[in-house]
Amino acid sequence: MLLSLDAATVRFGGRAVLDAVGLDVAEHEVVCVLGPSGSGKSTLLRAVAGLQPLSGGRVLLDGRDQAGVPAHKRGVGLMFQDHQLFPQRDVGANVAFGLRMHGVAKGRRDAEVGQLLDLVGLPGAARRAVASLSGGEQQRVALARALAPRPRLLMLDEPLGQLDRSLRERLVVELRELFGRLGTTVLAVTHDQGEAFALADRVVVMRDGRIAQTGTPLEVWQRPADAFVARFLGFENVVEATVAGTAADSPWGKLPVPDGSGQGSRTVLVRPAGVRLVPADQGLPCTVAARTFKGTHVAVHLQPADGPRLEAACALRDAPAPGARVGVEFDVAETLVLD
Amino acid sequence: MALPVAFFALFFAWPVAAIVTRGLKADGAWHLGRLADVVTRPDIRDVLWFTTWQALASTALTLLLALPAAYVFARLDFPGRHLLRAVVTVPFVLPTVVAGSAFLALVGHHGLLDQLWGVRLDTTVWAILLAHVFFNYAVVVRTVGGLWAQLDPRQEEAARVLGASPLTAWRKVTLPALAPAVAAAALMVFLFTFTSFGVVQILGGPTFSTLEVEIYRQTSEVFDLSTAAVLTLVQFAAVGAILAVHAWTVRRRETALRLVDPKVTARRPRGAGQWALLAGVLVTVALLLVLPLAVLVRRSLDAPGLGYYRALTDADGGTFLVAPLHAVWTSLEYAVAATAIAVGVGTLAAAALARRDAGRLVRGFDALLMLPLGVSAVTVGFGFLIALDKPPLDLRQSWILVPLAQALVGVPFVVRTMLPVLRAVDVRLREAAAVLGASPWRVWREVDLPLVRRALLVAAGFAFAVSLGEFGATVFIARPDNPTLPVAVARLLSRPGDLNYGQAMALSTILMVVCAAALLVLERLRTDRTGEF
């Protein structure tokens, strides 16, 4: 394993920001840590970089314990959330900084800076002032700077956090291609699931300093480990229910669940696509509370007579107007018993 | 951290300890009763009373005259505003003896007022008060005006829209925001005037004496070292109290205020009221700040053919063993050495203080660093005199003694200038450099230094100006055959005769020009932040 965290713990005051986290990252793997703000994901990166001392546990790089190894000797790269480009240096000098620190001769340095700027799509920008760059350009320079000393592990803290949506979507694809081509090992953190799923080979969901779930993007998306992960991924239809056989008794009435689901008191998730609208005299009677346009479909928010609201995904032309009375039926293929 | 601590232990704590011992210990036993004995002596009581009330009066007068100016500089836009701001600051960095001589030339015997109307103020307390205003005008204008200029005018506008009259809006919105800055400035002025030495020494004559002057008198004229030591302790306690209150108000000042770029808050004066205010401030500045200096220059030119200046090159004047002009070189040499020491020690201290993880102990050191500034130069000089004159550390014969004392006074300025800038450096920039492979030393060189280079130059300029003008400490320890400029001026003034007087004016003028030049360079370098002075 290139990077191993072994029960890594960081406490601020009495609070454990990182609580006995165990995590392995293999060479050439792109791992994305996903979690809401305050879940400890930035602290995780800082602990690996050597910027945040551990209160307990170990960080190992290539199997060697990093306790007592200062940040500048760990050989990892870190791209900061707001880039932290050196304001008094131009683009080229920012990118060359790490090379200079590693004693690379000037001639080779200039050549490598040129290559890196080509690589990140800013050819010939070496003499530009940092202040003159747009947000996306700053992000590219920060990336080139982090890549320059060829770190064995590149860490990205909310790499695209401050950029606008369309730019973000384009850059995610670029980053993904770039890391694949260079074979870089990457540990990134983000609070944006779309970003994490697009970027990562493997996703690690964090909650309150602990790992809630790890898996490929598809696994995590298809089988959220618990109600927290499901809600964090944006699923609203999560209820407590009592499962018996292939039926679950919930505030929304009887829900069909797949064969072989866990039995007893459970949390049940129904994806919006599994909430089917039927005429008002059938199924669970609901009132349409609101609807929001989602581009490819409309999310319809439904208020049943009893129990929490439901979200249904509806084709654009079929969406009922707010106030309309409808019935709801549930599709077993989109229903999942968690835990 | 180790070097600044050692520096202060050796050249500040130890001399102070020596003063305590000298004052309260005799024949191996402590005599704490001596404190009470000295303080209750009628003559000393008079000194204490005068020190306090003149400081209060000076502070009140300064606020009265300078607060309107703070408003004018902050909120009114007029041609020559920046030049005028620089002019107002000149007195603050001028040596006290220059101010003393300037006011002597204005209101003293054969002074301008004496010649015009037969009015002499040098025997009254007014000369001292006016000179104190002259000095501290800039403290108020810069501290209060600096904040005022950055207060968001939209806050007042918001109050107006909510139904407040202009006066109410000012009273309820602007005044509460300014109050801590006014308090901090007032305390600073009180501190400077409470420990005033050069001004009172020159203008006070035999009648008026502050604690500081009395300490000097007891040491060098009465030779009663233990009384001087006790007085030093009294002053020490008073200054400590004032600094504690000041630190408290500064902390309050840091409460969240919405600050904006000062450039956008100034408006052209409108209406008779604002024009009158502007005119009033301009007249005050002209009469109080510019006129004394103009008279000083004029007096120095009184002798035909620059006679006073030519006399400075002449060693036969009898006042010194060397030509007075020699003092210029001595002063410059000392100032360079003192600046180097102050910048070195001060930068290290500021770097240690700026660390985010600095503990309580280190932050306590911050307050300690301010002490030499307030504890008064005379204390420093006196302490050096009695502490560093015997083995293991006998520096009495060494030229380094004077720069060391001056550096001690200069370090707080260096720390005050560097600290806000160092604190403003984003920690994550340093972390970014560390992750890229920079060792802690390289981080400082590659990240901090380029960002603070200007502040460093400003700090050096301050230390240089302080050292050039330093009088209180230097007068104790400068060797008679090697006086600095201020010491030479004071000595010339203390002798009778037109030639001595004229030479003092000429030397003062030279000193003023050097200091003003240093200041103008500083103003150009100064970052847009107001700093802490």
Outline:
Chain A is an alpha+beta fold and 339 residues long. Chain A has helices at 41-49, 91-101, 106-119, 135-147, 165-182, 193-199, 217-222, 227-232, and strands at 3-12, 15-25, 30-34, 56-61, 64-65, 76-79, 153-157, 186-190, 202-207, 210-215, 238-244, 247-250, 253-256, 264-270, 275-278, 284-293, 298-304, 310-314, 325-330, 335-337.
Features:
heterodimer; A: 339 residues; alpha+beta; Rossmann fold; six-stranded mixed sheet; five-stranded antiparallel sheet; 8 helices; 20 strands; 35% strand; B: 533 residues; mainly alpha; MetI-like fold; 2 domains; two-stranded antiparallel sheet; two-stranded antiparallel ribbon; 75% helix
Describe this structure in words.
The complex is a heterodimer of chains A (339) and B (533). With 339 residues, chain A is of the alpha+beta class. Chain A folds into 2 domains: 3-224, 3-Layer(aba) Sandwich (Rossmann fold); 235-337, OB fold (Dihydrolipoamide Acetyltransferase, E2P) (Beta Barrel), CATH 2.40.50. Chain A is 25% helix and 35% strand. Chain A is built from 8 helices and 20 strands. Chain A has helices at 41-49, 91-101, 106-119, 135-147, 165-182, 193-199, 217-222, 227-232; strands at residues 3-12, 15-25, 30-34, 56-61, 64-65, 76-79, 153-157, 186-190, 202-207, 210-215, 238-244, 247-250, 253-256, 264-270, 275-278, 284-293, 298-304, 310-314, 325-330, 335-337. In chain A, strands 6-7-8-3-9-10 form a 6-stranded mixed beta sheet, with helices on both faces. A 5-stranded antiparallel beta sheet of chain A has the order 13-12-11-14-20. In chain A, strands 15-19-16-17-18 form a 5-stranded antiparallel beta sheet, with no helix packed on it. In chain A, strand 16 and strand 17 form a beta hairpin. Chain A is elongated. The two termini of chain A are 29 Å apart. The mean pLDDT of chain A is 89. In chain B, the strands form 2 sheets. A two-stranded antiparallel sheet of chain B has the order 1-2. With 533 residues, chain B is mostly helical. Chain B is globular and about 70 Å long. In chain B, helix 3 packs parallel to helix 7 (125-150), helix 5 crosses helix 7 (125-150) and helix 5 (96-107) packs parallel to helix 22. Chain B is built from 23 helices and 4 strands. In chain B, a hairpin with a 2-residue loop joins strand 3 (389-390) and strand 4. Chain B has 2 domains: 46-206 and 260-300, MetI-like (MetI-like fold, Orthogonal Bundle); 302-533, MetI-like (MetI-like fold). The model of chain B is unreliable at 527-533 (pLDDT under 50). Chain B has helices at residues 2-24, 33-39, 42-75, 81-93, 96-107, 112-117, 125-150, 153-161, 166-194, 198-203, 211-220, 225-253, 271-300, 307-311, 326-354, 360-374, 377-387, 401-424, 427-435, 440-469, 474-477, 485-493, 498-525; strands spanning 25-26, 29-30, 389-390, 393-394. Chains A and B meet through strand 6 and helix 2 of A and helix 19 and helix 20 of B.
